[in-house]
Amino acid sequence: QKEVEQNSGPLSVPEGAIASLNCTYSDRVSQSFFWYRQYSGKSPELIMSIYSNGDKEDGRFTAQLNKASQYVSLLIRDSQPSDSATYLCAVEEDNFNKFYFGSGTKLNVKP
Amino acid sequence: DTAVSQTPKYLVTQMGNDKSIKCEQNLGHDTMYWYKQDSKKFLKIMFSYNNKELIINETVPNRFSPKSPDKAHLNLHINSLELGDSAVYFCASSVPTGTEGGDTQYFGPGTRLTVL
């Protein structure tokens, strides 16, 4: 059973700041990594996926992956109050369509 | 226009009852899932089907029985409901992402099940 660990938060940042969300995973074989955003009472929504070591940028979001350290992070630049949500890290077991989720980090962006 | 839909959105029932949740996706995806999200937001995979065939069964009590009549539908039937079954149940479907590997999942709106 894979373990996907996230700090539950809440992480509070002022509007316009950079929010940094972290995730560690236990299995070295995992190859696919995802960040989902979940607003209260809503379903998870995919924000970013990353498969290779390094950084991947999409608008205000940057995902960072370090497979040697089994670590994946999400940076949100110019944080907005609308970014306030729970962010779920997910790891996919290779070629098995099996996803393991962390328990999420709650982000509060204060105006 | 809805990609992954679930019914009902809310389900309140007594212990011991049997209930079903339905899921449909119009995305043409081959793989569908059921997840359980507990009160601590922990999202755990229960089942996965690929083209109507069961491929993942994650040590879920056999009171839970998924059924996939076709690749666009994956229903979940729960027998003899228990208090601990109270949670939000999400259906999802996925498609291979492409050359990078991995699969992109799309979630339904969820069904909040409350067992009294």
What this model shows, in words?
The complex is a heterodimer of chains A (111) and B (116). Chain A has strands at residues 4-5, 11-14, 19-25, 32-38, 45-50, 54-58, 61-66, 71-76, 85-93, 98-101, 105-110. Chain A is globular, with a radius of gyration of 13 Å. Chain A is an all-beta fold and 111 residues long. Chain A has no helices and eleven strands. In chain B, strands 2, 4, 5, 6, 9, 10 and 11 form a seven-stranded mixed beta sheet that branches. In chain B, strand 9 (87-96) and strand 10 (103-107) form a beta hairpin. Classes of the chains: A mainly beta (111), B mainly beta (116). At the A-B interface, strand 4, strand 5, strand 9 and strand 10 of A face strand 5 and strand 10 of B.
Provide keyphrases for this structure:
heterodimer, A: 111 residues, mainly beta, 6-stranded mixed beta sheet, 5-stranded antiparallel beta sheet, 11 strands, globular, B: 116 residues, 7-stranded mixed beta sheet, 59% strand
Give a summary of the structure in a few sentences.
The complex is a heterodimer of chains A (111) and B (116). Chain A is mainly β and 111 residues long. Chain A is built from no helices and 11 strands.
